[in-house]
Amino acid sequence: MSNHSVENPWALYRPAQRWLFLAILFLVSTSNYIDRQVVSILIEPIKREYALSDSAMGLLSGFAFAAVYALLGIPVARLADRGNRKVVITATLAVWSCMTVLCGLVRSFPQLLLARVGVGTGEAGATPPAQSLIADYFPPDQRARALGIFMSSATVGYLVAFTIGARLAADHGWRAAFIALGAPGLLLCLLTWFGLSEPRSTLGRRNEEQESLGLALRTLAAKRTYVLLCLSAVLYWLVAYGALIWFPTYLLRVMNLDLAAVGTVYGSVAAAGALMGSVLGGLIMDAATRRGPKASVCVPAVILIGAAPVYEVALLSNSLAIFLIGSLIGGFAIGTAGPALFSILHRVCGSPRRAIAVAILLSFANLIGLGLGPVITGALSDALSASYGPVGLRYALMISILILVPAGAILWAASGSIEQDIEQ
Questions:
Q1: Rounded average pLDDT over 302-318
Q2: CB atoms near residue 16 (< 10 Å)
Q3: Spatial distance between the Cα atoms of 178 and 168, rounded to a whole number of angstroms
Q4: What are 288-291's contacts with CB under 8 Å, separation 24+?
Q5: Residue 303: is its pLDDT beyond 60?
Q6: Which of 296, 272, 373 has its CA nearest to residue 40?
Q7: Least confident stretch, 203-207, 251-255, 320-324
Q8: CB count in 10 Å sphere of residue 67
Q9: Do the Cβ atoms of 401 and 312 come closer than 8 Å?
Q10: What does the pLDDT look like over 130-160, one tens digit per residue?
């Protein structure tokens, strides 16, 4: 093996192999987002069966999953930075798939809550090891495109969860949706085990060559851009994973659509917006990056701030068409901003601490954004619905959506430090 191969893990693989690995990781991430998002389309039938409040449903769809996700994210990322990432991904995929199936077999709300905790336990090992592998599979000049394709799996998973999940729930009940969408992940474990490669096994990388956890944390904490990025991401996730998870319920409760129509119509529109954001937004970000580091931060900041009034108009209108158009534009903005946050992260975090940097951001973002976002919106809905009836959910969503404004403002502030924090 040449020295070039030892220093550059992507030199171990032919182009066809790299894209095969990416396809497998794409399927893993799609399973991740299917099992994570399917609960959002099932909120209303679960609530009716167990006679629950919106606050309780916010706990189920958010905090029960996110708390353990955040708790385990950093230890799992540490394994990813120092160990066999293929093993980590396969094991965690098996856990979250089994627990999603278990969600369909429960007989009480506490059991369902515990099963969702189990889903979060498994999914803590999804994104950081996968992004770390992609960074090793692809050379720097191909990495952004590979990461963009990988992150578009969130849109595919979202679409599958909404369309197929809604149809399964409408035809066979919400339990069937959990079982049918969780089971394929168990077969996918075979593909990850036999199909992925761990370049460290070939290169023989030693643990002592790697940066200590304490040094990694101190280095990241000293980067103003990274700290501001984490703060912006937390607020971004409060909307992306908190408020938006209530949109299907809003269509059922306020716009009076049926469950199947919500899954098909809104699911397709939301997925289209997010997919356009991932693909076209990636081109926008590439163009912004070519203009300089500051532009790479300011452009997504403006997009985040601009998404707020679009969503407000959509929620104020009683027209389904206007709501869907607003959701399409807003979904594009959300879909553009998400990959942009990770693109900025990879520019400033540095190679020795890539997985841990991703895990820290996701831990804070998921614990507060996904964990508290649905609960906050649900609690607002309970309080406002007591005075305004079902339309109280509309006002709760309008309040929550405004969080996009400070998210964008904080990201804009990072433009003052990104030039000195770049490490790649």
A1: 95
A2: 8
A3: 9
A4: 289/343
A5: yes
A6: 373
A7: 203-207
A8: 18
A9: yes
A10: 988 887 888 766 776 777 788 888 878 878 8
Radius of gyration of the chain (CA): 21
CA proximity to 65, closest of 126, 128, 127, 118: 118
The answer to whether residues 244 and 379 touch, using CB atoms and an 8 Å cutoff, is: no
424 confidence band (pLDDT: 50, 70, 90): low
Query: Residue 415 pLDDT > 60, yes or no?
Result: yes
Nearest Cα neighbor of 95 from 68, 58, 120 is: 120
Polymer length of the chain: 424
Domain count, the chain: 1
Q: In this structure, what DSSP letter does residue 13 have?
A: S
Amino acid at 79: L
Q: Which range of residues forms the domain containing residue 370?
A: 3-193+209-421
The CATH number of the domain holding residue 180 is 1.20.1250.20
Which residue type sits at 293? P
What is the rounded (10 degree) CA torsion for 138, 14, 8, 347?
-10
Cβ partners under 8 Å of residue 171, min gap 6: none
> Three-class SS of residue 1?
coil
In the predicted structure, residue 351 carries a pLDDT above the cut 60: yes
Residue with tokens 């077999």: 105
**Residue 316 counted as domain residue:** yes
Q: Contact, 301 vs 418, CB < 8 A?
A: no
Look at residue 304 and tell me if it is in a domain.
yes
Q: Does a structural domain hold residue 348?
A: yes
- Does the structure show a pLDDT above 60 at 207? no
Rounded Cα distance, 411 and 234, in Å: 11
The larger pLDDT score, comparing residue 8 to residue 90, is at: 90
Three-state secondary structure string covering 210-252: CCCHHHHHHHHHCCHHHHHHHHHHHHHHHHHHHHHHHHHHHHH
State the pLDDT confidence band at 4, using cuts at 50, 70 and 90: very low
Please count the other Cβ atoms lying within 10 Å of the Cβ belonging to residue 162: 26
Q: Which residue has the tokens 């069937």?
A: 176
Q: Which of 260, 347, 248, 257 is nearest to 295 (CA)?
A: 347
Tell me the pLDDT tens digit for each residue of 359-411. 888 878 777 877 788 888 989 999 999 999 989 999 999 999 999 999 999 99
Q: 147 in helix, strand or coil?
A: helix
- The dihedrals phi and psi of 89, each to the nearest 5 degrees, come to -65, -45
Please say whether the beta carbons of 405 and 305 come within 8 A.
yes
CA neighbor of 131 nearest in space, from 153, 146, 142, 120: 146
178 assigned to some structural domain: yes
